[in-house]
Structure formats: structure tokens, C-alpha cells
Amino acid sequence: MRIQVGDARLFFDVEGTKLVAEGPWMRERQTVVLLHPGPGFDHGLFKVQLGPWLSAGTQVVYTDLRGGGRSDRSTPEERRVERWADDVKDLCDAIGVARPVVLGLGFGSVVALEYAARHPDHPAALVLAAPVARIVAERSIAQYERLGGPEARAVAERFYDGMDEQGFADFLRVCFPLLSSYALTSDVIARADWNPAVLIEWMAGEAKELDLRDELAAIRAPALVLAGEDDAWAPLESAREVFGLLPGHKRFRSYTRGRHSVFRDAPEAYEDMRLFLDDIEAGEPPA
Amino acid sequence: MKVAVNGVHLFFDVEGAKVRPDGPWMRDSPTVILLPTGPGIDHSLYREHVGPALAEVAQVIYLDFRGAGRSDWSSAEHWTIDTWVDDLTAFCDVLELRRPVLLGTGIGGVVAVEQAARRPDLVDRLVLVSTVARYVHSRSVAEFDRVGGAEAGEVAARYYADPTELNFAEFMRICVPLYTRTPLPPDTIARIEMNMALIAHWDATTARDFDVRDAASRVQCPVLLLAGEDDPATTIAGIEELVEALPAYLLRYERYPEAGHGVFRDRPEAIAVVSEFLAAAETA
Question: How far is A24 from chain B (nearest CA, A)?
Fold first, then answer.
């Protein structure tokens, strides 16, 4: 499905019903909106494991952020974190999703943070997997080097310093495999509906100046922060920085040998998320 | 979930993803919209068996029409086939549901036939369950009498002659349990969100004179029609009028002995027939 949101049509997909039959009642379940890494990527990675797992107990909404996947490409001026964040709220409002749990991974968690800061009463809770409040290139480059040696360092340097298409191809070949502790199957890569031009444009532009640290004070939703201790995209220090600045109820979990694909790398993250979602549903603020 | 169409908010729920990983591909599955099983009735009767089974092969969208369930109830002048068709057209448009399969039971099937006749470009195929071309109440009275005895026939006659909410309460008690051979579990009935005023309004107005035979003759897509021979609500005689009107070369007609209204509860094997029919749908 796609729906008009502001000046763009956004793709969304759904797994798991909102209502479930329970004796004489139809019970409403939570809705979890999943925000994918990127920008310029699509929701497909979530369909392998995270979405199906969540849909056993919640309604899952996948979306492609504008610029990627099956959503409108939009324009360079509109491909900014502020717009992506407002799109999350506007999409939810357009399809009648009230008080969602918003889960972001990597770049998706950047969007989730901005969304929760700009619309503090909108989310019921946040799950921030591998979050950053800003892109600190040196931290990431150092981590790529630790995991992949000098070649990875050289490719990562170019990734953060205004890469071209060739630079992104090198990144996919050399650095991308370092973001998971397991071998991404060729199927997952083949299924990707990515638009690298949007990533390249954003890395050379907004990413260089992005800094949400002051804005995080506006967030009111309870949050679960999940971090991989070997994540090069969102280094542990950056995830801790986000956690430290969140003003409300919050919980932090980090995983040894966890990388950017934190759920796949550290299956115990699923259990931590389940406990968090149960607490949210029960109205108990996490600590 | 809800979307705004034609000045009201329509409730819908979804089971099964549209886009599914399949080896190196992301494959689109067909979309099937389940249209309400009766006027003033929400989508909940589909939730136990039909929706979950069809979600294996398609993205299932449960929809409450205007006037029922969790959609805006609006007001009586809008409780018409025309409004529901217009709402369905707008619903598909706003969500970019391209060429879905429409599955309708009873009144849902009537709306599906009208929709397919008016906008052949919008619909890939139809599944019509217990759907008649028109209501002839004397036929239903005779069937209630046959399957439920004289009292059931009398109660049905009284209600159809004077469809007030009071008479409906009696109809609900005596006649509705005769809709299926396998009784509806009490929890299932409790879960239905009903708009009694709409039911009474419908039976006093549109139910008396609608006739989709002309629309049925203009359907241009494949149709699967499922009917129960012991259905007192939408009688086999009324269903066969629809069979006559639909283009024969597009129709697959399955008639089930000892099955009542809705068919799936009495003959669960009918669900697999629908799944097979869905699997042949285009996935535009």
C-alpha cells in the first residue's frame, strides 16, 4: 500500500493484525513502526526476522522512507531528517495509527529520535537500535579499522568524506560485511531495493552537520537503547551518548560481539525487547 | 487502522504482508479485501478461519463499511449500496490498492458485484459467498420454515413485513441461529459490532428492491461463487438468479449441500477453494 503524506506518496506494508479475538472481545495490540537503515534503503531487511518475530505479539508497520524503496523519490531539499521524522508522524496519522511504538535501526533510529523530539506526545515508546545523535566519522573509521584492517579504514574514510558511486561500491564490498557478525546471504543483498544516490547525497550533505544532542531533551517517550559493542556505524560511545541525553524513562542494553545488525548478532536483544514492550503495555516505565 | 475517504473514516485491519521475501526476490502477493458479511455487521466473522487461512497466500484486508463496526457510522441516508461502492472505490484509491480481489458475503457480495460492474479496471477477480441477485423475502420465509419449523417461518415473515429493531430482536433469537448448520459460538457472536439501526433501515429500504442482475451481466473478471443449499437468508433460488446473470465463461460455481449462510463455517474445505482461486490473481 502507498498513501499520500505531505507532498509524497509513501509505501507501507503491514504484518500482524491490530485486533485479535480473545473470548468475547476483540483486543487491540500495540503497533510497532519499523524505520530502516539508510537513507535510500528500504524496509526489506526487516522482513527476514525482526518483523515476523514482532508480528506474533504486535501489529508491525513497515515503511520505506522517502527517497528509497517503493516510496516517492521526492527532492533533495525534502530528503532531510526533519522531513523523514515528520513523515513518520504524518504516515501514522494518515493510516490511523495512534501512539505507536517506533523502532529505528541505525539511520532509522536517527529519524526516530528526531520524530520523538518534534512530536513528544505521539509515540508510546521508542526502541533505538544502534542509535547516534550525530555522525562522528573518526569513531566509526577507527572501528572499521579494528574489524577490517587498513583497507577497511581507507574505504571508510572515503565513505565519510563525500564518496561517489565507486566509493559506495567499495563500501558495500569491504565495510558492509563488517556490520554483521554473520555472513549476509546473497539473497538479502539481491532483494534490496536501494537508491545509493540518496545515501551518497545525504552523507555529503546533512550528515556532516547533523547534531541532535540538544533536541533529545524534548523527548518524553520511554526508550530502550540497544547497542552492539562492535558496531562501526553506531559506535558504542555514540549509542551511550544518545542514552545519556534521553531525559525520560530509559533502559540500555549492549551486546558483546554485537554489530550493526544487533538483533541478528545478539538474539538476546529479542528477549530484552519483549520485556520492554511488555512493560510498556502494562504501563510500567522501564528503568 | 483508519483512512479518511469521502468525508468519513473507514476502519481496516491487515493480515499478511504484501511484499514477501522469496529467495532473491521480494514478491508481491495478491491483495484480497474481505467485505462485510451483512449490513450493519463488522468484519469480525472473518477473523477466526477465513482471514488467517487466506493470509497464507494473499494480503488480507478486513474492512468495516461506513455504518458498521469501527468505521464512522454516518447516517441513514448514506447506508446505501451506492455509498458503499463509492467508499470502496475511494478506499482502494487512497491506499493504492491496485486490482485487488474482492471477497464479499451477502451484502458484501452485492457491493462487490456493483463495484466490478462500475469499475472493471479496479478489480482483478471476485469471490462471492452466499450472494443473491435480489432478495425475495417469501423465499427466505419458506426456507426458515423448512429448516427451523413453523415458528421460524412466522418470525421471519413478521420481521420482513415490519423490520423494526424490536422484531429484529426476535428474528435474532429464533432465525439467526438457523443461518448455519454449525452453531456460531457465543464468543463469536459477542465479538460482532452490530449497528441495529442500520440492519432495520436496510431491511425496510434497499433490501426490498435492489437487483444486481444487470450489474452482474456486466462483470468482466473471473468470479468464484460459493453457496450453501440450506441457507435460509440468501436462498439457493436467489443465488441461482445471480448465476444466470453472471457471464457463464467467467464463473466457477460451487454449491454445497448441508451448508448454510457463509458456507465456510459449515464447509471449511471451501476456504481452500478460495485460496486456490486467489493464487491465480494478478499481482499488479
Answer: 4
pLDDT tier, A183 (very low <50, low <70, confident <90, very high otherwise): confident
Residues of B in contact with A2 (CB under 8 A): 95-96
Q: pTM score > 0.80 for this model? A: yes
Element at B284 (helix H, strand E): none
Closest residue in chain B to residue A42, using alpha carbons only = B26
Q: DSSP assignment of A248-285, as one string?
A: SSEEEEEETT--SSHHHH-THHHHHHHHHHHHHHTTPP
The secondary structure of residue B230, as a DSSP letter, is T
CB B58 within 8 A of CB B30: yes
Residue B123, exposed/middle/buried by CB under 10 A (0-12, 13-18, 19+)? buried
B59 phi-psi bin (left φ>0, alpha ψ -120 to 50, beta other)? beta
Q: Is the pLDDT of residue A184 over 90?
A: no
Residue in A with minimal Cα distance to B1: A96
What residue type is assigned to position B147 of the chain?
V
CA-CA-CA-CA dihedral for A62, A65, A71, A72, to nearest 10: 160
Using an 8 Å Cβ cutoff, are A30 and A276 in contact? no
The grid cell for A85 is: 521524522
